[in-house]
Design brief:
Blueprint (H helix, E strand, L loop, with lengths): L8 H5 L3 H6 L6 E6 L2 E6 L7 E7 L11 H6 L5 H7 L8 E7 L2 H6 L3 E7 L12
Antiparallel strand pairs: 1-2, 3-5, 4-5
Length: 130
């Protein structure tokens, strides 16, 4: 049985409208940090991942906080949403990944977010979408 996950990270950590307007672009949230410990930043700021819309990886009930192999096993569930987000294909230069809450946050409410990351790793200041 799958459960519906509540999307709280962007709401809880996204900068206010002033930060979004200061960039000159409509607010698009991206992730800065690592796949298991990150914060939400406007995409024009340096970041490691761009969430694929509001898509979340489907999780079984009572899944413990995923170690790296378990986190990687969720990536396949994000391929179709990543292609849709990218306009039909995973954008050139990006790969699909799954970013999860920290272990402490996971205990409260498990959350695994589909994301696109630069294929070679590193940070970017651009968005997949114009």
């Amino acid at each position: 049985m799958r459960r519906v996950l509540r999307l709280r990270r962007a709401r809880d950590r996204a900068p206010g409208p002033a930060g979004a307007l200061a960039s000159g672009n409509a607010f698009r949230a991206c992730f800065a940090g690592s796949p298991a410990d990150y914060s939400v930043v406007p995409c024009p700021e340096p970041h490691e991942a761009e969430p694929v819309g509001t898509e979340v990886a489907p999780l079984p009930d009572d899944l413990p906080h995923p170690d790296e192999p378990a986190r990687q096993s969720l990536v396949g569930s994000c391929t179709a949403p990543a292609r849709e987000y990218g306009g039909g294909e995973v954008p050139n230069g990006y790969v699909v990944d799954v970013w999860v809450d920290t272990a402490d946050e996971w205990a409260e409410s498990a959350f695994a977010r589909c994301a696109l990351v630069p294929a070679g790793g590193g940070r970017t200041t651009t968005s997949v979408r114009p």
